[in-house]
Structures are given as structure tokens and as C-alpha cells.
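Fill in residues.
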């Protein structure tokens, strides 16, 4: 980082207490107006997943952020001009916005083993964000997911810190570049151990030693910090029962002092709510632990009051608040926001042709091709011949929403049925009001659309003229079909709603803090948002029995089946595997389904390798390097064509 210390101290010296406190607050866009941004000196605003302005086109975002920004830049006797930064969850493309290119989720990118590609994806994503007038994305996720039951496994590149550490700096560089107008601020998240909670419970308790923490979970952050990542988001989880949001050792001693992180630390979605029963006390504990900016979606005015009280009664030292503000200003200076034109006047806002562009779609399609992992290929049935008479089936064959997974135009992802496809989607008023409706378990049809790209079926159709689509496979006819491609697997989900929570844990199973499963259930003794789960077992035939049914509708007629599985984690697939000739894992590939066809028909080679170990049974939790390691498919597995 350059030396901005003089500029920082000059500005800080001019700031009143109200101005300083406002700088550390980040409300959600629905709960703050541009007038309030000025009145309360707000430093940042965010969009939660699915919280979108107007008709959700790039111009709507530019207009919105331009208004917030203009309010933050007014200068008068009560207000200093300090540019606001706007944050979004662009975790696999700028996917909140209609028409953005959706890249494969991180788990697929891990299988691609291609750091150069990662940097290109990050640059393309940065451009699509900048084309909407936004400056900051809450990415990359640097979780090293150690338990496939976790609903956010797909946000993790690998169970192996090596891959995550190799990718982290490249993604940060791709986003932040040289801080130009085509770049955005990156945010490494969720610090730390989000992927290490007991039983993979989202926001749960991490019960591992400091030695293991340092070996597995710290290295990706070290790599991102060394590459200059400007912000870090704290995990909603705990470490041996203590919330990371109030963990001074983790935030100050480890992250800031030892890892030498000079940017600012942001809390996750209302993450300080669960620290203490008293909100005033939670605010003090978190700030004192080292939190710099606070994502307080709705009750930010209350938060402001509590910081003020805590400062006045000495519970929060003024130096700590000054340090938090200085860190935020340092990032704003470093990224050059003070010097950048207002959002509406920036280069890519004026020419947003890169948004959803053909070039970006090509990068995503390449990523899809490289991420596919082939688990089985009996009799070398793959690659398929383009002229074959192919039956395409399965609920995920022709559904761009499903193949994109969570975090798209809706937080929990979307279900793109034929009816909604290609129609410009406008949110209903009630959807706008409840963008993160946590009662939506992600399995219900969500009226929305992924604009652009191709479904897997559309991709196949473009290259194989004799292919037909029949979703449930009941029209399978050996006289008419040589082979079938059946697209099975998971449907979109996000965060805790994607957890697999095993019912009735084995008696005596250690669940941390010295307790065993018959005494208490994990997560019960620490307050978390308990929503979901997606299911109670990792078995695909239990989660989605319709898949095996579709496959059998076809195999019973003697037609060989090639399975293509959409999923956010390894699932137990023994039955489906037995029933099919070939089995391809496509993860959540994103909008460019054409990439699947590219490889199925041999136009490109099959090259993906598992970045996660593949379990045989539900109660296995293998990670590469474990003692007695014996998964169904080991880490690094992946067949190629002869
Ligand atoms: C998630 C974060 C996300 C934030 C803002 C939280 O619930 O844990 O990953 O960046 O919401 O939408």
C-alpha cells in the first residue's frame, strides 16, 4: 500500500464524532436513502442478495449508486465530502443484475486447476461490476470447506488449502488490478474457518486447534493479503463457542498484526447481533475486537447511538474508532475513489458494452469446459457422436436458473422454466420488500430469469441435430434413441438453507466443548440463524428421488445413459452410478451450458480433476491427507478421453 498517512490524519482531524461513526456504517439499500447517507455521514451501502434497484438493469444500478455517491460528496458546514463505496455479492459474476454472465461456482473452478483462468474470470467480473457503477464485491470466498454437509461448500475452491491459496492472489489481482475504473475492491471472506464448523453447520462452531487453523485456513488469507486485498469479511461462525465477530485474537492479533493486513475488516450480515444479549455490549465487543466497518442492514441508527454511548463512557477507546475510520479512508485513498469520477461518469458506466458480453461468455464457457469431472466412462461411451439420436432428459437439462445455483438475481437462485425464459424479469413489490426472504428454501419455483447464455439442452441442441428433449424420460424408445443424456442433481440454494443436517447424530459422537451428541445438538448452544436444511443426508437418491426415476425410465428400455450432475458438493451417488454408463459432474456451471456440450461431444478434451474427495457413504468425511483416507473417488480423480 502507498503512504496515505498524511492525507488520512488531515481528514481525520477534521471529522466530528458523528462523521467518524457514520464512516464505519454500512446499511442495506432498502433501509437507507441518499438524504440519510448525507445526514448520517454513511461510509458504505450494500445490496443483499436479490435486493435490486428499478428494473435491475445496469442503468438502474448506475443511477442508484450515483445518487448515493452524490449525497456522500456534498460538502458544507455539517458534512465532509468522503466518497461512499457500494458493495455487492458478485461471487460468480455480477449475478444480481439481469443479463450478467454467470461463471461456474468456485467448486467447479477448483476442479479446473487453472490460476490464469481465475484471474481472467475476476477481471471480467470486475468489468461487469464497474459497468453498473459499483466499486466493491464481497469476493473471493477463501473458505477451505472441510465438510460436504455445509451449504456453502460450492463457494469453496477446494478442501485443500493449496488450491485456495494459489487462487486467492490471482482472483484479488483480477478484481483490483491497478485500481482503474474497470477494477473493484475485493473482499476476502469469511475470516476465519467458515468451512471448518462441526458437521458443516453454516455459522456453526469451529472446534479445531490453533495449529490446524494455521495449517489449513490461514494460508489463503496470507496469500490474499500479500496480494493486496483491501477488505476482509468476518465469518458468522465461532471458534470454540466464541463468535469470530468479537474475537480479538483473530481480528487484531492474527489478521491485523501477524498477517499485516492494512485494509479494513467488515462484519457480515447483522453478524454482531449474536454476540451478547445487550446490543450496546455487542457493539463494544466487536469494535474493540478489531471490526472496522459494520454491515448493519436495518437498525443502523440504533447502532450509531450505541457507538456514541460506548465512546462517551470510555468502553470503546477513541483510538480504536480512529483506527477503524483510518483503515476505511486508507482503502478509499488507495483505490482512488476520491479521484474517480462520479459513478454515472465513469468509463464503463458510459460504455457498459462489456456487461454480459460475448468475450465474457467465452471466458465462462472455457471455465465450464475445464471444470467438468468425469467419474465413469464405461465402454468409452463418451465422447458422443454428434449425429447420434440422443434423448436429453432430467430436470436440470433445460433450466438455466438451476445450472447457475445460488446467488444470482435472487439470493437462493432461480428456477428458469420455459415460461419465464428470455422474458425480462421485473420483481414484484413484495419480492423487492423481502429480497432475502429466508423462508424460501430454494426449492420453490422463483419467478425470475437468467438472461443470455444457454441451458445444457440448448448447448446440446446446437451441435447435435438429432437430439430431442423429454424431461422425465418417459418417451424413451430404443427404436428412436441410441443414447440418453440425463441432467440430474441439486437445485439452487444458498448459505444455511443449503446445509445437510444429519438427523439423530450418532450417540457419543464428539461435538466439541466436551459434549457428546446425546447431550446437546451442535449449534444449539451458540446462537445462529437456524434455517433450512436442504436435506438430512448426502444421498442423491434421497434428496432427489426423481433423478433415479428418470434414469430408470430410460435404462429399463435398454438405452444407455450418460448422467450429467449439477451440484454444489460431492453427493453419495452409488445407485445412480451403477445405473449409468458414464457419469459427469458439472457442478453449478453458470449461464454457459454450451461448455458442457463442447466436452460431451469431444470438441474439447475432458480435463477437470476433483478438488474435493468424493464420499462413498454419508457419514464419511474424507479430506485429502486424512489418516486411513479411503473415499470413493480420491482428491485429484478425473478420467480423460482415450
Ligand atoms: C453472507 C455473505 C454476504 C453477505 C451480504 C451474508 O449473509 O454470509 O457472504 O456477503 O450476506 O449479502
Amino acid at each position: 500500500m502507498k503512504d496515505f498517512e498524511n492525507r488520512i490524519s488531515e481528514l481525520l482531524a477534521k471529522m466530528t464524532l458523528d462523521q467518524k461513526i457514520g464512516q464505519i456504517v454500512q446499511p442495506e439499500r432498502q433501509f437507507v436513502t441518499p438524504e440519510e447517507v448525507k445526514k448520517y455521514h454513511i461510509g458504505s451501502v450494500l445490496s443483499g442478495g436479490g435486493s435490486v434497484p428499478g428494473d435491475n438493469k445496469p442503468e438502474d444500478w448506475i443511477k442508484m449508486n450515483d445518487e448515493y455517491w452524490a449525497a456522500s460528496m456534498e460538502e458544507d458546514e455539517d458534512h465532509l465530502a468522503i466518497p461512499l463505496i457500494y458493495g455487492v455479492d458478485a461471487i460468480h459474476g455480477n449475478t444480481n443484475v439481469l443479463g450478467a454472465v454467470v461463471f461456474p461456482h468456485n467448486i467447479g473452478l477448483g476442479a479446473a486447476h487453472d490460476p490464469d483462468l481465475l484471474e481472467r474470470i475476476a477481471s471480467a467480473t470486475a468489468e461487469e461490476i464497474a459497468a453498473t457503477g459499483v466499486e466493491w464485491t464481497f469476493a473471493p470466498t477463501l473458505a477451505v470447506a472441510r465438510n460436504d454437509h455445509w451449504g456453502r461448500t460450492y463457494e469453496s475452491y477446494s478442501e485443500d488449502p493449496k488450491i485456495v491459496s494459489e487462487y486467492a492472489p490471482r482472483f484479488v489481482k483480477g478484481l483490483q488490478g491497478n485500481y482503474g475504473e474497470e477494477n473493484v475492491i475485493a473482499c476476502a471472506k469469511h475470516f476465519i474457518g467458515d468451512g471448518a464448523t462441526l458437521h458443516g453447520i453454516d455459522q456453526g462452531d469451529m472446534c479445531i486447534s490453533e495449529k490446524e487453523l494455521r495449517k489449513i485456513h490461514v494460508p489463503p488469507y496470507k496469500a490474499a493479503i500479500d496480494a493486496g486485498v483491501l477488505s476482509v469479511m468476518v465469518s458468522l461462525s465461532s471458534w470454540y463457542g466464541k463468535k469470530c465477530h468479537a474475537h480479538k485474537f483473530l481480528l487484531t492479533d492474527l489478521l491485523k498484526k501477524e498477517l499485516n493486513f492494512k485494509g479494513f475488516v467488515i462484519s457480515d450480515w447483522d453478524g454482531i447481533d449474536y454476540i451478547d444479549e445487550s446490543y450496546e455490549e455487542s457493539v463494544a465487543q466487536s469494535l474493540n475486537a478489531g471490526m472496522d466497518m459494520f454491515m448493519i442492514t436495518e437498525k443502523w441508527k440504533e447502532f450509531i447511538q450505541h457507538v456514541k454511548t460506548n465512546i462517551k463512557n470510555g468502553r470503546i477507546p477513541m483510538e480504536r474508532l480512529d483506527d477503524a475510520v483510518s483503515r476505511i479512508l486508507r482503502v478509499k485513498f488507495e483505490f482512488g475513489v476520491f479521484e474517480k469520477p462520479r459513478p454515472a461518469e465513469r468509463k464503463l458506466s458510459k460504455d457498459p458494452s462489456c456487461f454480459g458480453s460475448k468475450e465474457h461468455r467465452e471466458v465462462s464457457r472455457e471455465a465450464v469446459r475445464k471444470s467438468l469431472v468425469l467419474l465413469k466412462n464405461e465402454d468409452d461411451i463418451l465422447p458422443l457422436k454428434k449425429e447420434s439420436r440422443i434423448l436429453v432428459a432430467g430436470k436440470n437439462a433445460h433450466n438455466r436458473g438451476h445450472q447457475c445455483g445460488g446467488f444470482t438475481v435472487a439470493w437462493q437462485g432461480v428456477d428458469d422454466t420455459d415460461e419465464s425464459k428470455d422474458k425480462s424479469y421485473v420483481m414484484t413489490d413484495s419480492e423487492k420488500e423481502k429480497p432475502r426472504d429466508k423462508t424460501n428454501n430454494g426449492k420453490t419455483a422463483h419467478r425470475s430469469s437468467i438472461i443470455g447464455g444457454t441451458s445444457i439442452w440448448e448447448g446440446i441442441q446446437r451441435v447435435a441435430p438429432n437430439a430431442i428433449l423429454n424431461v422425465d424420460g418417459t418417451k424413451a424408445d430404443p427404436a428412436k434413441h441410441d443414447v440418453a443424456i440425463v441432467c440430474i442433481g441439486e437445485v439452487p440454494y444458498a448459505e444455511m438453507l443449503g446445509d445437510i443436517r444429519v438427523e439423530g447424530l450418532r450417540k457419543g459422537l464428539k461435538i466439541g466443548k466436551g459434549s457428546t451428541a446425546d447431550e446437546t445438538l451442535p449449534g444449539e448452544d451458540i446462537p445462529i440463524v437456524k434455517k433450512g436444511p436442504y436435506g438430512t443426508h448426502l444421498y442423491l437418491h434421497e434428496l432427489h428421488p426423481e433423478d433415479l426415476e428418470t434414469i430408470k425410465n430410460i435404462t429399463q428400455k435398454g438405452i444407455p445413459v450418460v448422467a450429467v450432475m449439477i451440484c454444489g458438493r460431492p453427493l453419495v451417488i452409488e445407485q445412480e452410478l451403477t445405473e449409468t454408463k458414464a457419469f459427469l459432474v458439472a457442478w453449478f456451471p453458470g449461464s454457459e451450458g454450451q461448455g458442457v456440450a463442447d466436452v460431451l461431444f469431444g470438441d474439447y478434451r475432458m480435463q477437470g480433476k476433483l478438488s474435493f474427495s468424493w464420499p462413498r457413504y454419508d457419514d464419511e468425511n474424507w479430506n485429502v491427507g486424512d489418516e486411513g483416507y479411503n473415499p470413493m473417488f480420491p482428491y485429484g480423480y478425473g478420467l480423460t478421453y482415450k
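The domain at 5-348 is CATH 3.20.20.300 (TIM Barrel).
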